[in-house]
Design brief:
With about 210 residues, the chain is of the alpha/beta class. The chain has seven helices and ten strands. The strands form three sheets. A six-stranded mixed beta sheet has the order 7-6-5-8-9-10, with helices on both faces. Strands 1-4 form a two-stranded antiparallel ribbon. Strands 2-3 form a two-stranded antiparallel sheet. Helix 3 links the parallel strand 5 and strand 6. Helix 1 packs across helix 6 and helix 2 packs across helix 3. The chain starts with a helix and ends in a 5-residue tail after the last helix. About 35% of the residues are buried.
Amino acid sequence: MNSIKKIFASKLLEIKAIKLQPSNPFTWASGWKSPFYCDNRKTLSYPKLRDFVKIEICHAIQENFPGCTAIAGVATGAIPQGALVADELGLPFVYVRSKPKDHGLENLIEGELETGAKVVVVEDLISTGGSSLKAAEAIKRYGCEVIGMVASYTYGFAVAEEAFKEAGVKLVTLTDYDHVVAQALETGYIKESDVEVLNEWRKDPANW
């Protein structure tokens, strides 16, 4: 197992950012029902963990996207981490709204990007990948190049993997579903029977 993914999975479990409710499933924005929820925005409330996430995202960018000249955060969850990462790397920062503002300048992208900037998008979580790739497309329309995306967590759904492949956007994550479930089982956070429920859900989350 990737050590950083294992370490971060453990840290998410420690702060109870992982919620498991098979009998009272969560409803996602997509409408999907889920027995599993990852609230990794809780990391912002823990200074040492917030710093860990910032540094590891920076390392991921430096290792995978060394040509990066600007950082974009996806509203709202990834705005704080994106800004922290941009500050650490000394790079310009913008954030992308889910839809244009309905007043003032009606901006979709807040901040300023130079034409041709090589942008890395920072996300907090990837489920279907729809909103993340919509943000990437907005940056491309702005006249910039999206050279990759770094997210704190991904569920690793096939639909998302296919969408990123089709869009030609490389995705790097700090941890993922497999590492979180493995750590949760190892530490007694969940039982073997819970893993069976989770795996059944993950096979077809849209119809679970």
